[in-house]
Design goal:
binds iron/sulfur cluster; alpha/beta; Rossmann fold; globular; binds 1,3-dihydroxyacetonephosphate; 365 residues; 13 strands; 4-stranded parallel sheet; single chain; 3 domains; 5-stranded parallel sheet
Amino acid sequence: MSTVIDVEYEQPACSTQHAWARVPVEPSADERIALKARIKQLLQERNAVMVSHYYVHPDLQDLAIETGGIVSDSLEMARFGRDHTAQTLVVSGVRFMGETAKILSPEKTVLMPDLDATCSLDLGCPVTDFSAFCDQHPDRTVVVYANTSAAVKARSDWLVTSSCALDIVKALKDKGHKILWAPDKHLGGYIQRETGADMLMWNGACIVHDEFKALELEQLKKEHPNAKVLVHPESPADVVALADAVGSTSAISKAAREMDVQTFIVATDKGMLHALRQQNPGKVFIEAPTAGNSATCKSCAHCPWMAMNGLAGVAHVLEFGANAVHVDPSLIPRARLPIDRMLAFTSAHKAGQNAGALVPHIGAA
Ligand code: 13P
Ligand code: SF4
């Protein structure tokens, strides 16, 4: 049973033009070498480490790996930032990733190449309207996707990312919880279909994954009959239905490594293709078809806010300590609670312990 609720709220402008206009110019080969060398030096001098998402520019992925940082999905970015001993985290991704790092480590400095790098899911879930929605359904456990503001996190009971949402919602359902889910209706729909949980859903979507097209994907599959299809669950249901593997960016990376085929069709942001090709020399990765209406990326899926991250930005923030992420200190303890629950659940799950024991029976909390 699931219902998508089209809550009336003042939708903030979700213009991507501003983001595309801020995408840094590609450095020349010489500039790239100089910037990389400078960043390596600054990382050491500032006791800093790079935490990069799979969708950012290949340079920022390569540099993170070369310097002992991480390239990963949003769950592992959070865990890595929390556990690393560096005093400064340079988060290349979008704002919710920097905010999560700051909430988990308020004593650390968290820097981002561009603090205006946001996310359509975050923009589409303003806290005032979301809180009112929660207030109307006090009998439901509030499960919120990581792609949200600190204030929305502070209104939730559980945080999830695409890599753990299935396990957490299943554990909640098994303990009798009815779910209020926000903001991504496609990820929520996927979780609902897989778990059968009772979910009331906010009507949000990722503007990048929402563009994948099932009819065209079916056609592409016919052209590559031996290819396996890897899909991020922020994609529409008819695209997910064509997948051989569905999961977070790290799950997509794992599936590509482990599946014994040569060709993959990938329905996620094109930034992911870099890591997939690096990790799997000899395998072929084809971008899944989209509506092709993005401003600078006519035939591919690319997040404009992820594209705002560049080498020059990283060098600049390290040099000057600029673009430090700020989270309202009064929000931090409450926003941290659902994140800690998620991290404890996933650690127990990974260690083969009974993670479900961390979820109280309904009425027991
Ligand atoms: P992952 O947690 O799978 O990396 O997803 C984050 C995201 O923003 C995908 O669009
Ligand atoms: Fe948000 Fe979509 Fe960009 Fe991910 S790809 S950060 S969900 S807009």
